[in-house]
UniProtKB/TrEMBL annotation:
GO terms for cellular component: mitochondrion. The keyword Oxidoreductase applies. It comes from Irena cyanogastra. This is gamma-butyrobetaine dioxygenase. Its EC number is 1.14.11.1. The gene is Bbox1. Keywords: Carnitine biosynthesis, Dioxygenase, Iron, Metal-binding, Oxidoreductase.
Amino acid sequence: MSPAVRKVEASGEGRFVCVQWEDGSESSYPCVWLRDSCRCPLCFLPSAGARMLLLEDLDVDIVVKQVALADSKKISVTWPDDHTSEYEAEWLKKRCFSEEARAVMRTDLFLPECQYWGSDLQLPKIPFEEIMCNDESAYEWLCTLKKVGIVLLTGAATKQGELIRLGHRIGFLRLTFYGPTWQVQDKADANNVAYTTGRLCFHTDYPVLQHPPGVQFLHCIKQTAAGGESEVVDGFNVSNKLKKQNPEAYQILSSTAVDYADVGVDYCDFAVHCKQRIIDMDSRGQAVRINYNNATRDTVFDIPAEKVRPFYAALKEFNDLLNSAEHKFTYKLKPGDVLTFDNWRVLHGRQSYPSCSEVTRHLEGAYADWDVVMSRLQLLRKRILNRD
């Protein structure tokens, strides 16, 4: 049932509006926020979902002149300049400032649930064409990708271009210096270590960019008979282990700015330099992004000399945890498989395979930003769950 208002009144010398709900709960709304959030045509543009009220026209000390209950589903507030604002009960209830209500809204908007895993990963699998044609399957894919960090799509055509289709399904792909998509295969004079037959150690892609791609897609078009197994590890799970095992090492990796560099020619010529912490944390000290690629870590290291060895010791311990048998999951992609994973969380690698005069292993890769992925997820969610 939609929420209904029993009573509304001003409080706190007119600086708050207190709403008593029919279910017995109460919500208190600051007047400055209510005025700032006015939904009338002068203050809000519905077609854009955007505020038109200018901040310079907002009185941060505003008080309510009059508050009334229009009906059980709407309240009306009159301000000192006689401007009137109306607020729907359901709209207000969702935006209650209580800790519980704010937690519900955070979960609804950002889906923060995280399912950690190690070598025991049960790799989620969904048919590629199902997510292309069916909204429920696409929603399941993106929800699982957000929660687990990795999903295998099966049965795609074994030709280039399937990732372009996948990009259109969510919105659009991320263009980088390696192009809208890129071909992972053994190449002469390779401009990236991935374009060789050698082993690739665990890494996230593109920490050399200020904003690394959030999601990566790898489509297996051709697979070598020997070697070439893929490996993945949950970076958030390993970061948590490091934090418990060696808090000092965690502190070093989450506070030291590491230099990355990537210089070459591909989609265009490029010379990129960036500083990143190996472990990016939120305000609660929880890892929210891993930025680690040993191949593109620069020889330039902008820290005092005496801090260099402690950094290497911390990084070595983190790397050892990444490579421990209990944490890494190994599998071999088959032609038609599309691996989709969280590039901010999941580190990936590859075992070596024999060099040959012809191409024996071919993956097509692409990126998408989490903004694009989360946008599609929320749109699918509203459609499937019939949410406003």
